[in-house]
Amino acid sequence: MLSEQKYEWDNIFAKGTCTAPISIYSGNTEIHTQNTEIAHTIFTNINFTGNAEGTDVALMGTSSGIEVEESDPQTYYWINGAGDWDDENHWSLSSGGSPAGCIPSGKDHVIFDNQSFQNNDDVFRIPQNAYVHDFRWNISVSGPTVALENSANLFINGSMVMAGEKATFDNQGSIHFVAGEEAILDTKDSEIDGNIIFNGNGPWQMESDFTSLLNIHLNAGTLQLNGNRLRNNNFYSEKERKRTMDISGSHWIFVDPPTYSNSFPIIVLNQFTLLSEGSHTFFKKNNSLSVRGGNTSTILSL
User: Fold this and answer.
1) Residue that wins the pLDDT comparison between 46 and 269
2) Strand partners, 269
3) Do 143 and 243 lie in a common domain?
């Protein structure tokens, strides 16, 4: 759905299943409705007015205004080695246990541990959009790969924590951090390619170094480095929603953009706050930074 829009829908019928939930995503949208039949549905940054209710609903990001019949979040463990996110035979409610017959939704937590994979070269694939609250990588050996296929999106409504070894990422899509409240980023400096998008309230608290091999987009919310190092190629903060970057006492490093990219970092100052006391920001030689405010634009060659 288009962001920053208002829709009036008299009736909404959205009934998924625990193996094929329905998802509706926006940057920030309002829907006015009166009659709803909603079940096994995931809403991200959707705000309802009028009369909306549902069962087995996951509210992600800043979603609100719908009366939800509460059900407890589950913790799903990945099992049976290489496979796809949307295969219910790879998810269990216990470590190394039997298949649960469902896949995680945006209110559930997922854990990858030493019982998850059978070989070090196993690949955990996300072929299409996937939704989760907390994403935890509790693996004590290196090797297995998290692979987002082209145009796939992983939406994380809570924290991403690597409690063991670094994870190996092959991200051809985008990872969206959409938390509406405080969340933890503890990636142990795992190198994550593809797009990294922050679009919620946060704040996101970095508890270790974070490396993005392509683009970071801060569309909404607060990112706090907490004395850690953020390393990225391009950085974009162009949406005119409230955004804060707190790099106090930290290192922010811009490395060379990919050879196929002619773009450069862009920051739009409208509603953007940078807190930088005691910080250091590094640019590779010959990089540029575009800073825009109001109707003006400045390109700094560095």
Assistant:
1) 46
2) none
3) no
